[in-house]
Amino acid sequence: MANLKEIRSRISSVSSTMQITGAMKMVSAAKLKKAQDAIIAMKPYAYKLKQLLEQLSSALGNDSIYNERPQVAKNILIVPITSNRGLCGAFNSNIIKKSLELESTVYKNQKVEFYTVGKKGNDVLKKTDKVFRYESHIFDNLNYADAAELASELMELYTSGRFDKVVLVYNSFKNAATQIVIEETFLPIQTVAEEQESSVDYIYEPSKEEIVKELIPRSLKTQVFKALRDSVASEHGARMTAMHKATDNASELRNQLKLTYNKARQAAITGEILEIVGGAEALN
Fold it and tell me: Residue 61: its pLDDT value, please?
């Protein structure tokens, strides 16, 4: 059995850890509220805009440079969105696992590269020697301007012909305890089914060219901003849940150590009493 000093030291260490995880849980809970309100307010708008974008792309056909090309896609860019910090359970590992799964199964016959957004994803995926570019500062102060800049870069990589397909992989926020890994084709724009397309009649104002130039890029930028906000809300939810579990586990371990300490202390006292009694008997 461990000595009393060692057990006391472990109890103190676990108590300190429990205070840290408890504080981190409270910080994540506060950040989650703000991020959750932001993504819940944005999702209906982003979803409707995406619907409109798909219908417009179907109607525009070959007039849009963002639509699917006739040739087979050879170069694929996967954009895994992870966090810059850890201690958030399986939040990052799920994204990394999904990205590698896409590379090895869905796009195994194509050339795949990664545009890593977030430090944790880059730390793992750079070992594959397939990281095309890396971005982490966007999460320092997430805003629409930075998201639009990232979206513009992805659009340029597609329209220039450098990549034939751009896929976003990120965690979608459902609630604090649940994050859903989403694989979403960013470019080319997915078009609606023919039966849906035929039921929609568009009048273009001012012109198709202006729509391609202004509305479609704006919609794509909003799509990236929504994915980043979704990921941030999911990160805070995952970290809050992970720290809650860690605090509970630390509390349980501390209680077990206290029980072990009390048993060891009782055994030590009993041993001392027996020694005293034995010594007294010897003197008699």
Answer: 66
Q: CB neighbours (10 Å) of residue 283?
A: 5
The residues, ordered by sequence, that sit 6+ positions from 28 with a Cβ below 8 Å of its Cβ are 236, 237, 239, 240, 243
List average pLDDT for each run of 10 residues in the chain, which is 284 residues long: 81 93 92 91 86 74 75 91 93 96 93 96 95 94 94 95 95 91 91 56 68 82 95 95 94 93 87 81 75
Note whether residue 260 is domain-resident: no
Taken in order 213, 215, 220, 226, the sign of the CA dihedral is: positive
Distance CA 148, CA 156 (A): 12
Residue 7 in contact with residue 260, Cβ under 8 Å? yes
The answer as to whether 276 is a domain residue is: no
Q: Among all residues, which ones are annotated catalytic?
A: 88
In this structure, the number of other CB atoms found within 10 A of the CB of residue 189 comes to: 22
DSSP 234-259: HHHHHHHHHHHHHHHHHHHHHHHHHH
Range(s) of the domain holding residue 223: 61-239
Asked whether the beta carbons of 228 and 81 are under 8 A apart, the reply is yes
Phi/psi zone of residue 143: left (φ > 0), alpha (ψ -120 to 50 degrees), beta?
Answer: beta
Give the count of domains, the chain: 1
27 CB burial (10 A radius; 0-12, 13-18, 19+): middle
